[in-house]
Specification:
305 residues, alpha+beta, seven-stranded antiparallel beta sheet, 4 helices, 14 strands
Length: 305
Amino acid sequence: MARAYASTILDAPVEAVWSVIRDFNGLSSWHPAIARSEIEDGLDVDVVGCIRRFWLQDGAMVRERLLSFSDRDYSFSYNFETPAFPVENYRAHVRLMPVTDTDRTFAEWEAAFDEAPEDKGKFVDIISNGVFQSGWNALKTVVAGRTAPSGARRWSGFPPNKVWCSTVIDGPADAVWNVIRDFAGMGGWHDEITMMHMIGGVRSDKVSGTRDFYFGEGHLNEKLLHLDDAERSFSYCITKSDLPWMHYVSGPRLWPVTDGNRTFAVWTGDWVASPQDDVTLIPSTEQNVYLKAFRTVQERYFSIR
């Protein structure tokens, strides 16, 4: 199947952006290609299965069915009922994620579909740039400077992980991945990590391999649980630590920001500890481990000097 994709960073918190785009009938208020829109049968815009009928500026009519919708994950998906292009099996997905260190929003819009052999690649470019990216460009102006709606609670109250943090790195996702993929290389992008090596001399891309290192004065071992070059992610668990936590599992994942050839970088962590210990462990891990590591990657490898 062909895949169209466009992603960007919006200068508003995720709750503010979601309050605009969650309206499945609201494209005409921010996308320049849409003249007017309506929901068939008088259904609400967040009823899964509803169909939006809209007209392009050239008069063409398109119908799309809402397939999934999540206020918790700031996402929805839809398909073509009456296509805008001569493609088949079209399914699109829109998702927002917070950029936690600057309170901005990562936004991605993607679609998978089948093209006729003679059209190979044609509609990938048209949809990626003419539909998705042009929409993001227009939305930037609409949401710039907006604040979260009164009473909005991120993630509907609780994040998906004990620590969920993110930032933007000014380099292509593949280049950033080439830096952080080395499971034994974190000493090169975190000042407090020293003497890191793989136990037994195994390769750093061997899943089940364990790295041994010092973090300040603390001595830790961490085992690689998964490594995924396609989604640019890995995860690991702690097998030896002086800190008061159990069942620690953590890892980063990278997304390409096609608008500006940048990287949206997320790091998550989960563990079990007492509430009293978590008061210190949660903010310290977020700021002094995860975000500090990403910021050091930015400074050492992708800052313009």
